[in-house]
């Protein structure tokens, strides 16, 4: 069972205050009862389900829409009740009976939602007592609801303050963490940059050292290299003196091997040179021992060829110092070979016998 009490104003009775109480079971469409009181007298009436259905048909409205407007007109308060009006008129046929009509006002146009017949209550004090009790209970419920809402509001406010404090703490911690991480990042970045600069400097130093070493090696190799022309000139200048010294007399020519060896250059000496001199000395000695008279004639025949062979050997030794002993010995033996017999005179052959 649901009930609603509200204060209404009646346009036909502007100076009087009326209190309207409505009771219903499920909804207003199932029927409801109305009690009207002016704090002195009381009236009550009842609206059946058929009456509600008939009013909806007369209004040509849907039942749900009509019930919604009817509930707003009888139970609404505040701004929602501003669009509805009540009229109270006495019944002309029966004394003491009143008719309460309720209308919907929209843009100065009113639509009748229905009316109820009210009969006077024999004991209005009971109605007044019920209205007072309902008002007190309603106030207590509202106060309890208000207290509950205030408690929830206080709890929500505390939670809000707690969340705000936590958020402030998190934001402060986040800012500190970001600042610390940024400072660490800057330190690490500077260290990496310093290492990279050091490595680049080391690379440049090593490159400079390598360039200097290569330059010094090129200069040293260019300074110690002897041009081929100078070595040939040195060999040519030393050869004529040796030839002139060797080509004097027979006694000096018999002693030429030790002088030929003494004229050698120790700094530029090669192993193949001694073997060549030995072979030449042996050939000359054999010729002198066998036919001493023939040596005078052979000096004129063999002298230029021997000198040329000696000059060629010295020139090749200065330009090609890496030749082996065997190769030098073969060349010396070929150059110091005896004169062919075709060029020998008959007297020389007789002297040999």
Automatic annotation (TrEMBL):
All copies of the XRCC4 coiled-coil domain together span 123-199
Q: Which InterPro entries match?
A: DNA_repair_prot_XRCC4, XRCC4-like_C, XRCC4-like_N_sf, XRCC4_C, XRCC4_CC, XRCC4_N, XRCC4_N_sf
Give the XRCC4 N-terminal domain ranges.
18-118
**Where mainly located?**
nucleus
Q: Which domain of life is it from?
A: Eukaryota
- Residue ranges for the region (Disordered) are 211-282, 295-353
Alphabetized, the UniProt keywords read: DNA damage, DNA recombination, DNA repair, Nucleus
Subcellular localization, as worded in the UniProt entry: Nucleus
* Keyword hit for Ribonucleoprotein: no
- Which residues fall in a compositionally biased region of kind Basic and acidic residues? 305-330
Q: Which GO cellular component does the record give, naming just one? A: DNA-dependent protein kinase-DNA ligase 4 complex
Drop me one GO molecular function for this one. Answer: DNA binding
XRCC4 C-terminal domain residues are 241-351
- Acidic residues biased stretches: 344-353
Supply the Pfam families for this chain. Answer: XRCC4, XRCC4_C, XRCC4_CC
**Which biological process terms from the Gene Ontology are attached to this UniProt entry?**
double-strand break repair via nonhomologous end joining; immunoglobulin V(D)J recombination; response to X-ray
Family statement: Belongs to the XRCC4-XLF family. XRCC4 subfamily.
- Name it: DNA repair protein XRCC4
What is the taxonomic lineage of the source species? Answer: Eukaryota, Metazoa, Chordata, Craniata, Vertebrata
């Amino acid at each position: 069972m649901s009930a609603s009490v509200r204060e209404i104003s009646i346009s036909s009775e502007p100076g009087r205050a009326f209190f309207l109480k409505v009771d219903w079971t499920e909804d207003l469409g199932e029927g409801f009862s109305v009690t009207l009181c002016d704090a002195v007298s009381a009236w009550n009436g009842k609206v059946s389900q058929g009456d509600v259905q008939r009013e909806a048909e007369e209004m040509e409205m849907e039942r749900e829409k009509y019930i919604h407007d009817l509930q707003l007109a009888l139970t609404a308060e505040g701004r929602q009740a501003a669009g509805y009006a009540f009229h109270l008129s006495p019944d002309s046929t029966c004394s003491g009976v009143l008719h309460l009509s309720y209308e919907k006002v929209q843009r100065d146009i009113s639509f009748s939602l229905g009316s109820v017949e009210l009969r006077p209550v024999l004991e209005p004090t009971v109605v007044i007592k019920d209205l007072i009790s309902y008002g007190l209970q309603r106030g207590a419920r509202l106060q309890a609801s208000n207290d509950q809402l205030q408690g929830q509001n206080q709890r929500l406010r505390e939670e809000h303050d707690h969340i705000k404090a936590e958020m402030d703490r998190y934001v402060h911690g986040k800012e500190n963490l970001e600042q610390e991480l940024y400072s660490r990042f800057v330190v690490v970045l500077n260290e990496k940059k310093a290492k990279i600069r050091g490595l680049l400097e080391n690379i440049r130093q090593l490159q400079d050292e390598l360039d200097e070493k290569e330059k010094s090696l090129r200069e040293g190799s260019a300074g110690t290299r002897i041009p081929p022309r100078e070595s040939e000139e040195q060999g040519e200048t030393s050869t004529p003196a040796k030839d002139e010294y060797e080509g004097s007399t027979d006694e000096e020519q018999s002693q030429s091997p030790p002088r030929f060896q003494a004229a050698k250059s120790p700094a530029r000496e090669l192993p193949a040179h001694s073997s060549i001199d030995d072979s030449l000395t042996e050939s000359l000695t054999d010729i002198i021992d066998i036919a001493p008279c023939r040596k005078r004639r052979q000096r004129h025949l063999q002298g230029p060829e021997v000198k040329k062979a000696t000059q060629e050997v010295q020139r090749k030794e200065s330009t090609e110092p890496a030749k082996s002993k065997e190769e030098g010995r073969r060349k010396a033996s070929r150059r110091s070979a005896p004169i062919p017999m075709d060029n020998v005179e008959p007297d020389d052959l007789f002297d040999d016998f």
